[in-house]
Design a protein that fits this description.
This protein has 345 residues and is of the alpha/beta class. The chain has two domains: 176 residues, D-Maltodextrin-Binding Protein, domain 2; 163 residues, Periplasmic binding protein-like II (D-Maltodextrin-Binding Protein, domain 2, 3-Layer(aba) Sandwich). Helices cover 43% and strands 16% of the residues. Helix 3 packs across helix 15, helix 6 packs across helix 8 and helix 8 crosses helix 10.
């Protein structure tokens, strides 16, 4: 007699079809990005209403990095079916997945978002450059200890208010994108840093993306709503999170423009806004072959009524990807075409 757990694991590996264990795994489990979380929840609720027998998917906000780690741990009922991500999967993560037998993964870009800096309505900062941001929150800007206490220490044209930034932890995709999109460009513009990138890329990355560990930058966890609450209640504080949270709290927060461009639907959709980034979900194909509700969930996510320009996800703050990107990813989602893991560098 098969042990129930072994039977389910074998089922998920695609090696056998047993109806009873399959029925026990109709409920989807997705982990990952706090930015993608509200959109994934909305899709889960719609899918569950349309397919009540499949149950409501379990969506967990763990942060992109932590979610990928869970996703890549293996095949079987103990492991998540889907990873939500606010940045693309890393080469190190594809290697972890492959090492644990997770070799068939479908990547679907579900929309776009922007990393925003925001303050309470009475905040004195209205605009920053990428260099201002780097000089304020980098641990060692251009290789030197960061001693800036106020925004005026960073730029003489800025107000003399203390630097107090609430932001995401290292496990967050928002933190990764902050380093890549907003901190690295002004760092790399320095000739010495550009040379360092060629000779010691690891040190270059540490200098260009490492964030302060003092009271100037406070890690607020994976709960972006907590960051919103903190900056709304703390005069002068700045928060870093996804655009949807700014839009949802527009009555009490204001966005800070970056390089003269404010965060908005149009500026993010056109990639004019420096913090614009794509959002993804990653599907474990071995699980999709065993659990029908995964395909139903992916189909719901990629409906025009969901991720299209007038869709309910856009109404919740997500930025619709360009038409060609949606069309390409809709085909990928329908076929569950696996990602070429070797292409991720």
């Amino acid at each position: 007699m098969f042990n129930r757990r072994l039977a389910v694991t074998a089922l998920l590996c695609g090696s056998m079809l047993l109806p009873t264990p399959a029925a026990a795994r109709t409920q989807i489990r997705a982990v990952g990005s706090s930015t993608v979380y509200p959109f994934a929840k909305a899709v889960a609720e719609r899918m569950a209403r349309a397919n009540p027998r499949m149950g409501v998917p379990i969506i967990e906000s763990t942060g992109t990095g932590a979610g990928m780690k869970l996703f890549c741990q293996g095949i079987g009922e103990r492991f998540p079916d889907i990873a939500n991500a606010s940045r693309r999967i890393k080469a190190s993560e594809t290697k972890l997945c492959a090492a644990n037998g997770v070799t068939q993964i479908t990547e679907i870009q579900v929309g776009m978002d922007g990393i925003v800096l925001a303050m309470g309505k009475s905040g004195q900062l209205s605009g920053l450059s990428q260099r201002d941001i780097y000089m304020a929150i980098a641990k060692t800007p251009f290789g030197k200890p960061n001693r800036a206490k106020t925004w005026r220490d960073v730029n003489a044209k800025l107000p003399a208010i203390p630097i107090r930034v609430y932001g995401p932890p290292p496990t967050s995709g928002t933190r990764d994108a902050l380093g890549e999109l907003l901190m690295t460009p002004p760092c790399e513009a320095n000739a010495g840093m550009a040379a360092l990138k060629k000779s010691n890329e690891a040190k270059f990355k540490a200098i260009c993306t490492g964030v302060r560990e003092d009271e100037a930058f406070i890690q607020a966890g994976e709960n972006d709503n907590l960051i919103v609450q903190k900056i709304a209640a703390t005069p002068g504080a700045v928060g870093i999170f996804g655009y949807s949270y700014l839009e949802e709290n527009a009555n009490k927060l204001k966005g800070i423009s970056i390089n003269g461009i404010g965060p908005s639907y149009n500026s993010i959709a056109s990639f004019k806004y420096p913090g614009a980034r794509p959002l993804y979900i990653y599907v474990k194909n071995a699980h999709a072959r065993a659990i029908p509700s995964i395909r139903a969930y992916v189909a719901e996510f990629t409906k025009e009524a969901a991720w299209g320009k007038g869709g309910y996800l856009v109404q919740r703050g997500m930025i619709a990807a360009p038409d060609a990107v949606r069309a390409r990813n809709a085909q990928t989602a329908k076929a569950l075409s696996p990602l070429n893991l070797a292409s991720i560098k």
